[in-house]
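Appendix B, example 12.
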Amino acid sequence: MIGPVGSALPVGREVLIPGELSVAIDEGGIRTASGMLPALLYTTNGLERHGQREMVFAIARTGAPAPGFPLTMARTVHRFAAEGRLVDAGDVSVFGRPGVDIDERVTGFVYADPPAALPSTVELARPPLIALPLLGGETAVVQRFGHARVLALLGAQERYYPHPWWFRPGRAPVLDDAEFRAATMLSRAPAYNLPFLHVVHDGDRLELSVSPDELPALREAMREAPEVCAYLPGLAGTPKTYVWSPGQSGPAAIVAPGGERATRLACNFVLIVRGDGQPTARQVEDGFAVLLTGAMHARLLQAVEAGRPVEIGLPDGAVRSLAFRVGADATSLADVNALPPNMLSGVPAATTMPAPARAAPTPAAPPRGRIVLLTSEEQLRQATTPSELSDFLDRARRVVEGLFAGVRHHTEELMVEFRLAPNRPVRVRIMARPIAPPRELLVVLERQLQALPPPTIHYTEVAFQLHLPIGGSA
């Protein structure tokens, strides 16, 4: 599609795997705050057959030869997708060794939704992902503190709202990992990476929202959350977004053209603390810290469980209420440039991912459930292989299915948490909802799961949860 961001001319097409994967290369212009930026766009064709959104790699032209790293990345993503390892907006890929052919400082990629119009000659069935290279410690900060914080800093650097969707070779890093970790209050808090969650500050109101499809994942995170927990949201599609870097004095935001008078600001985290103090919500860094009583948190969790809106009054502070609602945001600003940042008045992440797939299920096959990672995907990748992990999960499913077959129970979903480490037996924790199965069944289930031969694990402990729908038996 050729849109208002520029035009495109086809340069060529690289066939990487005949009949499976190719990459179209276009030359186009990107309209930025400082003028038209010549760029090369690499668009994949062949990932969608494995359920992976196609990808676009956009690189500003510098006079150097056309880079080859998008072709290498396309092969890598294709291989992972064929193994059932998919990525989406907000996910990150980490390099074992830094460097690509146009910049040796690149340590990984973050994936984001595209602008409304791409200067590309390729027509796609659904919007692709933008793959953005990260430099130095930017990758580690995305992993630990969320992609929205780094994307906002990139938006401030390029003066493009909400963030640039291209890579400019030679750009300066937007942060230093050690400095960022030492300065941010989130270094002391565990965190959940929830790119589907939107957190918006609107006057005296702080609003959390999620789409109906993602509501189950939010429920799961809030059930498991400790008393002090940070939630790392995605981009909220508002006219303003908070931005923060160490040493900054006071709140700041990047602003979309025409958005100067808008009251809604996207927040890049919300830190929720349960305690006995006076309930309050305070703007800090590029997000909010919220103190709730136990009863208030219970009300919020009940609303999330029921999928209904709620508004909780906060008597102390400039923000007077914390609201939750289910529904998509009305606006998207992914295709507009930003004004310069304006001053305004005023922990290991768990990633939900599909279960590793082996063969296409038949209609009669039992549910495979889903996997929630409690350690990073990169750590899991280094510790074991997809085939061994898939085999282990299949054996665990068969244990559960065999024990529950023909047993009277009222359990709808079973959560089995596994912790695996080198030269150590399998460690298991089991939870059920809404009603636990008979105790004697749980005891046998725990023992059989602990007795499973684990996959080969290297270097470190890995942890993940297997969530299986059971279906009650009257």
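Confidence is low (pLDDT under 50) at residues 1-8, 329-366. The CA atoms of residues 6 and 29 lie 5 Å apart.
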